[in-house]
């Protein structure tokens, strides 16, 4: 990989140390007398290396591990101290390259990148040497002896040696393969395969299985998961599961079909090239001078190519270079390597997987997840959990499917965990740009795990055992009911970019989406009503309407009281802070007997300080502030420890004037109608409004319609561009989604896009387009093109629309004409204005254009215009069309402006008659609201009654208190309880109402 890298000259001290280790005599290695001390010196050298890892690179170039360390371990394994020291040095030398250059500034530096490639080439040479079966046997024997010791008899050195052996095996397997250097084909033994075979012959694989299944070795579960994932990372679960099964004939038949398709393509391409050749050879070639076409000079253009049939078609763009994308915007490359090992390796790995599933999978996955959730693992170790879950659940599906072997990871909790990991990785992919590749890889792992969970759920749903199918229905109903599970694929499809994600990720995402929609469609079929969860906007109760003058008077009165109390207490505060007067002692700022934790009583203490200041207790306020500062020093909420007297005085002043009760105000107190006047049904309505979740009837077509977004369709078309290299199944998934959008959702115009038409052109001109491989694409292309040419006579400008992706508004205007969407939103009456009505509108606008007040010009026009059917939007649109105003924004109400309800004369008379009829009723407002011909908000009706002087106070409209005493007590008790709870919650959140200066 980096064989051409110039090696740096070796340090003389390192040369002497390497020579002091020992030498070979034939097949034996003879160590020097000071071999152990020399190895310790090398460890000390590595500890003092610089950022360029110069010592590590020099030792790698000297091949010390292949020539010295492995022979020492093999032939002197009985010498415990020497063996342990050699393993310690090996662990250091095989440390992954990413850990050697982990600083962010190193990753983009070309010099450090070259150093990393040099170390990687050395480690790949190490890995080849680790294929020695004798060496692996020595490690396995030492690890076996340590595992045989009971945990209470193990010394600290034994535990440390066990960890080093596991880390060394992990480092060996972690070294990536170099296919260009190995030049191995499928069904051949690679370097990685030889290491795996050494683990098999030495029994190391059985020791890993024992560690994974043993209850006494749970603390090594993360190491076991990492080693197993590295062992199987190049393997396909399907290939491993089918190893040794008598499917040779079907596989051979499949391979023959693929070869025949390739040969057919070559024959058709050759035939197409021959048809393009003319029967008569053109003898005209070389250089031509094009008349009447000047070059950049004053002479005619010189043309150096074969003369085309049409001279006017001469093009100078044949040698034009393609537009290059910047390096930071290049598509992300997938570095995953998948290969098919030789049959003996596959059979060994199959036995290993079967033993792991039978004995280790459930206990190990439980322990790994427990370590991750309780933060006993290293950061991002959850990727090994996701990989192991995906691989072995897929292996179980292709082998003899047994639900009990994967029961630990098949549950709704696992779905929730994977879904949360996807959201976490997606967020980090956007925020942490320095680790873009790593987060993209983890996101892909989580997506594969989610896909495998769906495949396993689909398999269990079709299980022949009725009991197993019933258990799957519980998980299935949750997956389709919860909104987060339904929307996660939509989010991933809309946020996909080739800069942050690989093409393989998009393939797996399209496959997962196809599978989910297929399962959801099957789940909804045959059911009359399917209810799912939906998000609902949290409705807030209407606040109590007060007149502006009352609010102003209350605020002014409150401010005057605070100023007066501060003037009375400011002198005492100043004297006490300067030491002229005594301050009370032994003040406790928290309630030790309270059930509320001390950390949550800071808000209560702040309120107590303010209460002391308001009541003129200056000394108690200062004492509480200083005592609270000692109890809660974090964040300097009550001031810094060395705060100056002047700053302490200003902090107390700010506490005095701050409205700390704002965050504790109960929502019930802001209700327009008294809390006690609400009956049980109204209470239930208010509680339902505060809930953030609700249920709705699910319609599969409405859900599929969400996939018709242009960003999602763009990604599908982008993947269809590589239809020749895609598998037939992926092409089917793409066409199925486009078919759902075009046919099921009736949005074929969304697919009138030039990039998709170009793909159709390539497919139709492909030599084997009529074969079954592309038959589905050809059929869909004919349908889309037919729909396109049907729409051409209606809109000749549709050819220009091919260059743009379209939303719902645009496709509606393609069929109905430009501006149809606006006409539909305004009732379709933009042109339904005769000359008399236009003249009337102009006169009314000129009359009221300068009006000021709560009603604007449009409100006055609506009151006076003869055609009462005209709405506000229609009037504003017509004003724009008549150039009376510059735009809709001129008539737009300012933010926070009160909407004026227009009361026509007949509506006012109706309100008067209804009030006269129901003024003696128990519930006046309910009767009036029920009988109004045009529904209006309750507040608007109350304001109009006050304006007409039909009532003096809105309290006259409250319900009459004619209910039974028992029901009234029950209702009031409920209201008091709710108010108390709201006050308690507000008291806990009072910190959010404290000014920022107090929380510094």
Description of the molecule:
- The chain has a two-stranded antiparallel ribbon.
- With 1000 residues, it is mainly alpha-helical.
- The longest helix has 31 residues, at 343-373.
- β3 and β4 form a beta hairpin.
- The chain is 58% helix and 3% strand.
- The radius of gyration is 40 Å and the shape is extended.
- α19 packs antiparallel against α20 (436-461) and α31 (728-744) packs parallel to α33 (775-791).
Taking the sheet with the most strands, its summary is: 2 strands, antiparallel
Q: What is Rg?
A: 40 Å
The amount of beta strand, in percent, is under 5%
Structural class: mainly alpha
Distance, first to last CA:
55 Å
| Helical proportion, percent range | 55-70%
Shape: extended
pLDDT < 50 runs, ≥5 residues:
1-6, 539-546, 663-691, 963-1000
Record field, number of beta strands: 6
Count of runs of 4 or more consecutive helical residues: 43
Strand numbers in spatial order across the main sheet: 1-2
- The residue-averaged pLDDT reads 80
How would you summarize this macromolecular structure in one to three sentences?
It is found in: Nucleus. This protein has 1000 residues and is mainly α. It contains 43 helices and six strands.
């Amino acid at each position: 990989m980096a064989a051409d890298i110039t090696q740096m000259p070796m340090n003389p001290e390192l040369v002497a140390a390497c020579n002091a280790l020992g030498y070979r005599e034939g097949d034996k290695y003879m160590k020097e007398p000071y071999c152990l001390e020399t190895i310790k010196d090398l460890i000390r050298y590595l500890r003092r290396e610089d950022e360029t890892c110069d010592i590590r690179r020099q030792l790698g170039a000297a091949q010390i591990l292949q020539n010295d360390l492995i022979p020492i371990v093999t032939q002197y394994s009985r010498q415990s101290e020497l063996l342990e020291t050699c393993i310690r040095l090996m662990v250091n030398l095989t440390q992954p390259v990413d850990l050697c250059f982990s600083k962010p500034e190193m990753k983009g530096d070309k010099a450090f990148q070259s150093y990393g490639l040099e170390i990687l080439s050395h480690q790949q040479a190490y890995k080849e040497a680790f294929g020695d079966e004798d060496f692996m046997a020595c490690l396995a024997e030492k690890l076996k002896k340590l595992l045989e010791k009971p945990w209470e008899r193990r010394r600290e050195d034994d535990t440390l040696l066990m960890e080093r052996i596991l880390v060394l095996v992990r480092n060996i397997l972690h070294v990536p393969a170099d296919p260009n250097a190995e030049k191995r084909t499928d069904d051949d033994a690679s370097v990685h395969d030889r290491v795996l075979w050494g683990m098999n012959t030495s029994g190391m694989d059985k020791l890993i299985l024992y560690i994974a299944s043993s209850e006494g070795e749970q603390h090594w579960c993360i190491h076991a998961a990492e080693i197993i994932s590295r062992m199987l990372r190049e393997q396909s679960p399907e290939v491993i599961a089918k190893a040794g099964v008598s499917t040779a004939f079907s596989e051979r038949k499949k391979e023959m079909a693929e070869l025949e398709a390739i040969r057919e393509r070559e024959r058709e391409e050759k035939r197409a090239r021959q048809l393009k050749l003319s029967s008569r050879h053109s003898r005209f070639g070389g250089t031509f001078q094009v008349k009447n076409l000047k070059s950049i000079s004053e002479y005619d253009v010189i043309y150096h190519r074969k003369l085309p049939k049409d001279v006017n078609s001469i093009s100078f763009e044949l040698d034009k270079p393609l537009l290059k994308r910047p390096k930071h915007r290049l598509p992300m490359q997938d570095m995953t390597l998948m290969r098919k090992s030789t049959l003996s390796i596959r059979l060994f790995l199959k036995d290993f997987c079967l033993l792991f599933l039978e004995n280790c999978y459930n206990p190990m996955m439980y322990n790994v997840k427990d370590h991750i959730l309780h933060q006993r693992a290293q950061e991002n170790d959850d990727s090994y959990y996701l990989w192991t879950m995906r691989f072995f659940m897929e292996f179980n599906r292709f082998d003899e499917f047994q639900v009990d072997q994967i029961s630990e990871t098949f549950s709704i909790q696992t779905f929730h965990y994977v879904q949360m990991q996807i959201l976490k990785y997606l967020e980090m992919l956007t925020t942490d740009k320095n680790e873009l590749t790593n987060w993209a890889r983890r996101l892909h792992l989580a997506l594969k795990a989610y896909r495998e969970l769906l495949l396993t759920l689909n398999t269990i749903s079709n299980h022949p055992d009725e009991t197993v199918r019933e258990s799957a229905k519980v998980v299935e109903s949750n997956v389709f009911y919860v909104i987060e599970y339904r929307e996660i694929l939509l989010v991933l499809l809309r946020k996909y970019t080739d800069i942050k994600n690989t093409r393989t990720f998009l393939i797996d995402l399209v496959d997962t989406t196809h599978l989910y929609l297929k399962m959801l469609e099957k789940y909804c079929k045959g059911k009359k009503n399917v209810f799912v969860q939906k998000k609902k906007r949290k409705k807030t109760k209407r606040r109590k309407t007060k007149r502006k003058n009352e609010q102003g008077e209350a605020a002014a009165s409150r401010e005057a009281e605070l100023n007066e109390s501060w003037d009375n207490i400011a002198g005492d505060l100043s004297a006490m802070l300067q030491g002229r007067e005594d301050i009370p002692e032994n003040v406790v700022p928290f309630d030790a007997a309270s059930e509320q934790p001390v950390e949550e009583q800071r808000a209560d203490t702040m309120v107590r300080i303010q209460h002391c200041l308001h009541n003129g207790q200056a000394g108690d306020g200062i004492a509480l502030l200083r005592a609270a500062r000692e109890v809660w020093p974090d964040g300097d909420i009550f001031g810094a420890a060395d705060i100056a007297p002047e700053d302490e005085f200003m902090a107390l002043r700010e506490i005095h004037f701050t409205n700390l009760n704002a965050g504790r105000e109960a929502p019930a107190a802001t209700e327009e109608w008294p809390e006690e006047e609400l009956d049980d049904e109204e209470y239930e309505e208010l509680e339902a409004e505060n809930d953030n979740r609700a249920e709705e009837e699910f319609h599969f077509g409405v859900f599929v319609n969400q996939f018709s977004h242009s960003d999602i369709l763009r990604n599908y078309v982008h993947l269809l561009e590589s239809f020749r290299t895609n598998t037939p199944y992926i092409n089917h998934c793409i066409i199925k989604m486009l078919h759902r959008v075009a046919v099921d959702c009736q949005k074929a115009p969304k697919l009138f896009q030039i990039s998709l038409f170009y793909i159709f052109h390539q497919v139709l001109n492909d030599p084997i387009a009529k074969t079954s491989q592309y038959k589905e694409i050809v059929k869909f292309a004919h349908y889309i093109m037919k729909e396109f040419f049907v729409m051409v006579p209606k809109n000749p400008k549709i050819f220009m629309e091919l260059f743009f992706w379209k939303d719902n508004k645009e496709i509606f205007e393609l069929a109905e004409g430009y501006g149809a969407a606006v006409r539909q939103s305004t009732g379709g009456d933009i042109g339904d204005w005769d000359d008399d009505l236009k003249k009337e509108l102009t006169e009314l606008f000129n009359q009221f254009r300068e009006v000021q007040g709560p009603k604007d010009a449009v409100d006055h026009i609506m009151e006076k215009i003869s055609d009462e059917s005209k709405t506000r939007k229609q009037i504003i649109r017509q004003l724009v069309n008549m150039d009376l105003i510059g735009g809709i924004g001129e008539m737009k109400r300012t933010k926070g402006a009160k909407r004026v309800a227009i009361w026509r004369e007949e509506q006012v008379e109706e309100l008067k008659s209804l009030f006269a009829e129901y003024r003696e009723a128990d519930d006046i407002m309910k009767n009036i609201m029920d009988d109004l011909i045009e529904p209006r908000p309750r507040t608007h009706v109350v304001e109009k009654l006050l304006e007409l002087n039909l009532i003096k106070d809105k309290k006259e409209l409250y319900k009459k208190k004619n209910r039974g005493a028992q029901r009234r007590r029950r209702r009031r008790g409920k209201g008091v309880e709710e108010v108390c709870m709201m006050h308690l919650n507000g008291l806990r959140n009072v910190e959010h109402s404290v000014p920022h200066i107090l929380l510094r």
